[in-house]
Design brief:
This protein is an alpha/beta fold. The protein is built from 14 helices and 13 strands. It has a single domain, classed as Alpha-Beta Barrel (TIM Barrel). The strands form three sheets. It has an eight-stranded parallel β-barrel with strand order 3-4-7-8-9-10-12-13, surrounded by four helices. Helix 10 crosses helix 12.
Length: 366
């Protein structure tokens, strides 16, 4: 409530990126006033040999450099995906590069992986791990040509390996030129083969019992045949999971004036307008994989009902970004409390029992 009546009006007067920086850096102060996180054994989820205390995660891009991971964990997230990190530190695209479409509860961004690089990240989090599962997202540096993308990903992978509970391979940001081409069959296969090979080598070197779980984050702008191909590659290469979805380049069905939307320019759209598209994609992936590959559902989740819809479509875990901006830190508790209520109402004892329970119906609504 305080967020919506007091904090958000102040933050929303500032340019979106300034508000974001301010929020991120003042979190340690703010955290002292947050209630203890909501907990329930009904929300515990075991996946990838990891224990998630609840299924609500913070999506990649919010804390790219890992400057506030401990404070974010204190808000009650079950997991945080830091990054996207690149091998080379880079400033990202020129500002302004982040825009609010308040009438649509949406954002447009073309941040372009602004980050201080994988090595700097590792130095920062080495002694300051958050008290929850930590995923680390890696992408391609802008200066690296697409043909050399694999070496760039491998460089970041080696650096973050020891610190990541899972690694997310981001091949779906619309804001790095050509990055999405890495979702094509040949490119994706060669990238993932190399990453898995390195993963197994590092496993031996570090004496881990299992390789680090690798997940691939995909775009909502893919066609059905692309999904089929991606699932085939992912199953063949024993990739551990899929994160669906990143932001969309579509501008369909927006309430905001067309001229205002156009004035924002290029970038990925996130938030409410993405909800249904992302949910349907999750349902399609769940059906294509027969539920064998865990899915993390992300895109336009604002409420427990939104999260429930993603879970019933096939997501074992969910993430928020834009909903967190619009609703504030209490969104974590609201979703978790709401999920427990829904589980009780629907007669499920645990989240994992509900995963994919309505995938067929939801996919059919396309
Ligand atoms: C400002 C901004 C920056 C983002 N940066 C990244 C990023 O670095 N890596 C990534 O995988 N996704 C990034 N995303 C995408 C989100 O992680 C998420 O997939 C997407 O916004 C859909 O979820 P939402 O509707 O809850 O925001 C970013 C999104 C926003 C709004």
């Amino acid at each position: 409530m305080v967020y919506r009546s007091l904090v958000r009006p102040i933050l929303f007067r500032l340019p979106p990126e300034t508000a974001h920086e301010l929020a991120l850096h003042s979190l340690p102060l703010f955290c002292k006033f947050v209630e203890r996180p909501f907990e329930s054994p009904m929300l515990n989820t075991d996946l990838f040999n990891l224990r998630f205390r609840n299924p609500v995660g913070l999506a990649a891009g919010f804390d790219k450099d890992g400057v506030a991971l401990e404070s974010l964990a204190a808000l009650g997230f079950g997991f945080i995906e830091a990054g996207t990190l690149t091998l080379h530190a880079q400033p990202g695209n020129p500002k302004p590069r982040m825009f609010r479409l308040a009438a649509d509860q949406a954002l447009i961004n073309r941040a372009g992986f602004n980050n201080s690089g994988a090595a700097a990240f590792v130095k920062r989090v080495e002694h300051r791990r958050p008290d929850c599962v930590l995923g680390i997202s890696i992408g391609k540096s802008k200066i690296t040509p697409l043909e050399e993308a694999t070496a760039d990903y491998l460089g970041s992978f080696e650096l973050v390996y020891k610190f990541a509970d899972y690694v997310a391979i981001n091949v779906s940001s619309p804001n790095t030129p050509q990055l999405r081409e890495l979702q094509q069959s040949e490119q994706l296969t060669s990238l993932l083969v190399e990453l898995q090979t390195r993963n197994r080598a590092l496993q031996k070197r570090h004496g881990r019992l299992t390789p680090v779980p690798l997940l691939v984050k995909i775009s909502p702008d893919l066609e059905r045949r692309d999904l089929e191909m991606i699932v085939e590659v992912i199953e063949r290469l024993q990739i551990d999971g899929i994160i669906a979805t990143n932001t969309t380049i579509s501008r369909d069905h927006l309430r905001t004036d067309k001229s205002r939307v156009e004035a924002c320019g290029a970038g990925g759209l996130s938030g409410k307008p993405l909800t249904t598209r992302a949910t349907q994609m999750i349902a399609a992936l769940y059906r294509l994989t027969g539920g064998r590959i865990p899915l993390i559902g992300v895109g336009g989740i604002f409420t427990a009902e939104d999260a429930w819809e993603k879970i019933c479509a096939g997501a074992s875990l969910i993430q928020v970004y834009t909903g967190f901006i619009y609703k504030g830190p209490s969104i974590v508790r609201q979703i978790n409390e709401g999920l427990v209520e829904i589980l009780r109402r629907e007669g499920f004892a645990k989240i994992d029992e509900a995963v994919g329970s309505r995938a067929k119906e939801i996919e059919g609504n396309r």
